[in-house]
Amino acid sequence: MRRAAVAAVTAASFALGGGAGAWAWSVAQQREAADARLQAQERVDEAVGAAHAEAAAAGAAVGLLGASGTDVVLAAARPALDAEVEASRTVLDESDGQVADDTVRLALAAAIDAVPGGPASAAAMRAATARLVDARSAVEEAVGARREATEAEAAAAAAAAAAAAPQADTAGGDGDAAAAGCGTTYSGPAFYTSTPTEGGDGSNGRLTPQMLSAVSWTVDSRGTPFYLRADATAALERLNVAFRAALGHDLALDLAYRDYDTQVAMRAALGSVAAVPGTSSHGTGLALDVPELPCTYGWDSPARAWLVANGPAYGWVSPSWAQRGGSNPEYWHYEFRG
Fold it and tell me: Which of 89, 120, 165, 322 could form a disulfide with 330 if both were Cys (CB 3.0 to 4.6 A apart)?
């Protein structure tokens, strides 16, 4: 294109020059000028092309940095934040009622609510994660402090109960049973804790395996686990930790879940002392019996004193009807009220 422009300039010079000499001189001079301009323009074009190439390379580098740098940071920050949110929510749920002051739980809830839900910078997500970690750690420390305080109180209560009732039998001799206020005249068939009801409909005495869970530390004399409703089991696990810290041994169990057929058999053996089949609190997976004998858990025993004083903190109570002076006194019976 530029060579054609030079030819056009040359032709115009010939038309205006008025002679061969002038024309020859004009052509030579203008060719030199045109060539100089062309070379200069080509150098400019080369410089512009180089600049464009450098810009393209820089753009590619920026894009590559975005993919391998910034984007990678963002991709790592979001899963880390989401995982911490899930962990913090779990701690918040499980710490309900387990801290002396709910201020730390409220702070954790606020930190969870403040998490950015939409697009956010990596720095913002890292900051939110750090706030959650700090708030969650504070709740966990508060739970630990409350547990230590509860165990200390339990130990003091057990010691006080032992001092107030020196006649209580903690070794289990039958000769001391009457002194401890417990005993039995029952001579009928033995009954055992029940397993979940396969194919049950979820009604009293027909609870399915999905509705029950076994305690972790003991089984009955036949090797059958003690089953309770899942939330009752979880609470009893926590209670047992505190019980063991206070009294030096695990909580002993005798009966837990009771299926419908066992309720029928017990009603036949015990009469009105046993619940009408289909109405037993054991049939809901929300009741347990500690051993009647030996008399470790009798009316005046340190173990019962601890359970009555501390069980409610874990949702487990001695119901009024089963207490001494109640309508059907049973020192061995406890129920989960949540």
Answer: 322
What is this structure's pTM? 0.51
Long-range CB contacts for residues 214-217, cutoff 8 Å, separation at least 24: 215/240, 215/253, 215/256, 217/250
pLDDT score recorded for residue 184? 65
Strand order in 316-317's β-sheet? Answer: 287-289, 333-336, 316-317
CB of 284 closer than 8 Å to CB of 194? no
Range of the domain at 228: 165-336
- For residues 48 and 90, membership in a common domain is answered with yes
Assign 3-class secondary structure to 56-84: HHHHHHHHHHHHHHHHHHHHHHHHHHHHH
Residues 6+ apart with CB under 8 A from 173: 294
Q: Are 316 and 235 spatial neighbours (Cβ–Cβ below 8 Å)?
A: yes
Rg of the chain over CA atoms, in angstroms?
A: 43
Compute the C-alpha angle 75/78/80, nearest 5°. Answer: 105
pLDDT tops 60 at residue 285: yes
Q: Are residues 215 and 320 in the same domain?
A: yes
85-129, pLDDT tens digit by residue? 999 999 999 888 788 888 999 999 999 999 988 888 888 988 999
Q: Are residues 181 and 134 in the same domain?
A: no
Please give the Cα distance from 196 to 207 (Å, whole number). Answer: 6
CA dihedral 49, 55, 59, 65 (to 10 degrees): 120
69 contacts: CB under 8 Å, gap ≥ 6: none
Query: CB within 8 A of 311, min separation 6: which ones?
Result: 239, 317, 318, 334
